[in-house]
Write a structure and sequence with these properties.
mainly alpha, two-stranded antiparallel sheet, about 0% strand, globular
Length: about 375
């Protein structure tokens, strides 16, 4: 029999605790009171994030700042970009924490969307990690038992634990790429994903800048893919394998969380070209956020560059290539304030569906203005 201590269940347990679901499970609250409670908690965590699964956890932010100081010293003030996406020499304070970026209206929108995302997180945790993922994992284990009999109960070691972490990361990378591709290449997906791309400046909080209806889209794929991986490793090791961790994060998750802060940060952090051919450097994501046409729909990967290479979306920018962030002018005007970013996707989706309905009926319609 498979023990109850499967690796995926352990991760779910940690996430439930980190998100606050376990702590308040004994409380009975109405939906609006519960949401207000979550947003209040998120406001506190935004000042000093306490979840080690969050890239805004203060030790990771501190490490990001320290690495930025080192880069400033090595580059003699070069390698950081201003509000216009152009590289320019900067003094130390402006290099690490430029006032023009952290006080930009776009950065304030980031904070509002981040707080809403944190407030709604328990909903997605319960919906996907609390229901879909355990079902898929148990189905995977059951299928393996039916096909191959009882667990071989392999003995875990360092190599296997690292392999488990690496496989998990690569599965997440593949799912992210195809979800991201769908967001860029479909009308409705792009209407939702524009919220993320409407960021006119990049800060670590921009990583969480998403419309709240995008959260279940991003969550469903990993919930299925990672639970299949968890079920496979639980079967092979009879539930007795765990990932190697650094400060309570798996080695690969720790490296990605740190890397993720630089993906949405004005300091360009690039790898050697030969390495970027295989791995996405944070600086490559600067190009992805550019509104210049030559940069559209490029560098869609999360960790590796493999899928971008296969689908022709890989782009290597010059060392300090200009990458003005945001949307093209007509779209940017519709996704500027917090209310714009919350309401415009619904308007655009309604327009898209209305246009398709008219087309299917064989009629004609003028272009609707959002």
């Amino acid at each position: 029999m498979i023990s109850s201590e499967s690796p995926f269940k352990a991760e779910v347990e940690e996430l439930l605790e980190a998100s606050g679901v376990k702590a308040s499970s004994a409380e009975i609250l109405g939906p609006f009171s519960d949401l207000a409670n979550r947003i209040s908690e998120a406001l506190w965590l935004a000042v000093l994030p306490g979840s080690t699964t969050n890239s805004l956890w203060w030790p990771l932010l501190l490490l990001t700042a320290i690495l930025s100081v080192i880069l400033w010293a090595l580059r003699r003030g070069r390698g950081a970009k201003g509000v216009d996406g152009r590289e320019q020499p900067m003094g130390l304070l402006a290099y690490v924490m430029p006032k023009s970026i952290i006080t930009h209206p776009s950065a304030r929108v980031d904070i509002g969307l981040y707080l809403l995302d944190r407030g709604l997180m328990p909903v997605w945790v319960v919906a996907f990690l609390g229901s879909v993922a355990p079902f898929v994992e148990q189905t995977t284990i059951g299928a393996l038992q039916s096909a191959f009999g009882g667990s071989p109960a392999l003995t875990p070691n360092l190599a296997w634990s690292l392999a488990y972490g690496l496989v998990t990361l690569l599965i997440a990378d593949m799912i992210f790429f195809f979800t991201h591709l769908m967001m860029h290449k479909t009308d409705i997906g792009w209407a939702i994903h524009k919220v993320h791309h409407s960021a006119q400046v990049l800060t670590p909080i921009t990583r969480m800048r998403e419309h709240f209806i995008a959260a279940p889209i991003w969550a469903l794929g990993p919930a299925i893919g990672l639970s299949i991986s968890g079920g496979l490793f639980a079967y092979l090791f009879n539930g007795g394998i765990t990932q190697i961790t650094i400060v309570n994060l798996s080695v690969f998750s720790f490296l990605y969380a740190l890397n993720g802060n630089f993906r949405h940060y004005h300091v360009s952090f690039r790898y050697p070209r030969w390495l970027e051919y295989w791995l996405q450097s944070p600086g490559m994501h600067h190009t992805h956020h550019s509104y210049l046409e030559k940069h559209w729909d490029t560098n869609l990967g999360l960790v590796t560059s493999i899928w971008d290479r296969l689908f022709g979306t890989l782009y290597f920018a010059e060392r300090y290539e200009e990458t003005p962030w945001g949307l093209t002018e007509p779209d940017q005007a519709k996704y500027t304030s917090l209310s714009d970013n919350l309401l415009t996707p619904f308007r655009e989706i309604a327009r898209i569906l209305g246009r398709r309905w008219v087309s299917e009926k064989g009629g004609t319609a003028g272009r609707a203005e959002v």
